[in-house]
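Quick note —
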Amino acid sequence: MLGTQFYNQAVRKTVISFGTLFNNIELKKTVDGQVLEVEKVPLAYGPKQKFLYRLQGNPTDGKKVAITLPRLYFEMTGIDYDPSRKTPATQKYKAIIPDSGSEENAKEVRTQYVPVPYNISFEVGVIAKSQDDGLQILEQILPFFQPSFNMSIKFIPDMNETRDVAVVLNNVDFDDDWEDDFSTRRSITYSMQFTAKSYIYGPYSKASVIRKSKIIETIGDTAVNKRQVELTYTPKAKTDINQDGQVDAADDLLVTADDDFGFNEGMNFLWTV
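Predicted structure written out below.
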């Protein structure tokens, strides 16, 4: 089991999808009800300390340039197993891969065990230079989490596996680090803690669809009149799959594993003793 290389990028896709939720937040400057300026709030991945350090950068030394405010940041802070969403470990699901409809190019069946539920923790922060800017950004986020918001993620494209992941807002913290020092820039930070109820997937296996089975059977007395019979079974369509007005052998070649079908039976006597 261990040692089989695979990488479904489940955690990476969760991080990207989560960050995308905060991509298009804007800050509007108004005077007497008239909009003077609309600014898209930049979003970056990284810890809060990184941006607070850059906030104190001195633009005159030619090396460090202070970042502009307001700004959004987010980072993944933890991964924890969620036993409350556990399903039977032996449960599987499958995907049927289309083919050209010929018996030689039979459809492929891909099988995968159900994913393991994991909670991925995130922190999202708003760094602003005034309370009004921070609250304006905050109010564009909080109403959508009551307390959760669902995002749809296509985890395994090869398996057509798409799931809704609930993102839960746990709490909001406030921090104002200004201490009456006029030589430093003031920054107001709102930190929001989220939990994404995501999944992590194992590898999937591939197998061709069995379109023909053959059984060789010996019948009769073992000493007298012993004969061998070859029995063959192939799928038989029950509906007009190719929609040509009749159910025939051409439809048999188009039967898939998910269809309701019967069997064509064949018998061939091989030899007698």
